[in-house]
Amino acid sequence: MSDKSLGETPANDTSEIDMTGSDTLHVQHRDNGVVLIEIDRPPANALDLATRTRLEAVLDGIETDLTVRAVVLTGRGKSFCAGDDLREAMTRGDDALASLSQFGRLLDKIEALRVPVIAGVNGACVGGGLELALCCDVRVASEKAFFIGAGVNVGLMASVYRLPRLIGVAQAKAMLLTGLRTQAQTALAYGLVTAVHPHESLLNEAMAIADRIASRAPLSVEATKRMVGQAFDLDPQEAAAAIGREVAPLAKSDDHKAGIMAFVSREEPVFNRR
């Protein structure tokens, strides 16, 4: 992470921000290529169908906007996300299974997004909200955050694929079979998050990670995300071939030349995604 703290550039400083969104989803586009997405559906930031649809549209825009280099996803208020809106779910009738499938597609879209997504887990991260955090590339938490694998609490099943791959089978079973609360420091020990911060500085810390990523060579960042995402699914020969396919165009890129020149001249590189 960069030594520079966003304490020097407050997260609520909108002097260089284009703000768009809705009452339940706030989106800020910063000049350095970082996008901040905040879920705002009090009290628990549950994702109803309308908010999910808006979030999908935002992600589609990010995917095609090559000026975007990193995303921070967080919640407003006391919760990160409670997953599905269970009150709305009770009214869906025969559409319930289709709704779950749509939620799964949203999660896959976040995981496969062209640019890295940093989850700033500011509070309750429950059920589908835990799955939402797991789809992100980096997770940092507030000291007030907690995590619940709530599938067994509501007669469903969730996080059974991503969570064991991230923290191991033993810890994942402890969380998912009990449906109990896991506090932020325990989540840190498990490897579920990479850092726990004071609540008031969480957003700045998450933005600092995104700022650092946004300052690196974009094609390199995107290729690295793709390869790390496949790391557990490829045998050594497949991995070597995939790495070769990714590295070949990077080695010929203008950004690679710019990085070498900056290193030799001891200057900070400027990357243009070419």
General description of the model:
The protein has helices at 49-64, 86-89, 96-111, 128-134, 162-167, 169-178, 184-190, 202-214, 218-230, 236-251, 254-265; strands at residues 17-21, 25-30, 34-39, 70-75, 79-81, 117-121, 124-126, 138-142, 146-148, 181-183, 195-197. The protein contains 11 helices and 11 strands. With 274 residues, it is an alpha/beta fold. The two termini are 24 Å apart. Helix 1 (49-64) links the parallel strand 3 and strand 4. Residues 1-19 have low confidence and may be disordered. The strands form 2 sheets. The protein has a 7-stranded mixed β-sheet with strand order 1-2-3-4-6-8-11, with helices on both faces. A 4-stranded mixed β-sheet has the order 5-7-9-10. The radius of gyration is 19 Å and the shape is globular.
Task: Give a concise summary.
With 274 residues, this protein is of the alpha/beta class. The protein has helices at residues 49-64, 86-89, 96-111, 128-134, 162-167, 169-178, 184-190, 202-214, 218-230, 236-251, 254-265; strands at residues 17-21, 25-30, 34-39, 70-75, 79-81, 117-121, 124-126, 138-142, 146-148, 181-183, 195-197.
Oligomeric category: single chain
Described by strand count, sense and barrel closure, the largest sheet is: 7 strands, mixed
Shape: globular
Integer-rounded radius of gyration: 19 Å
In sequence order, what are the helices and strands, one letter per element?
Answer: EEEHEEHHEEHEEHHEHEHHHH
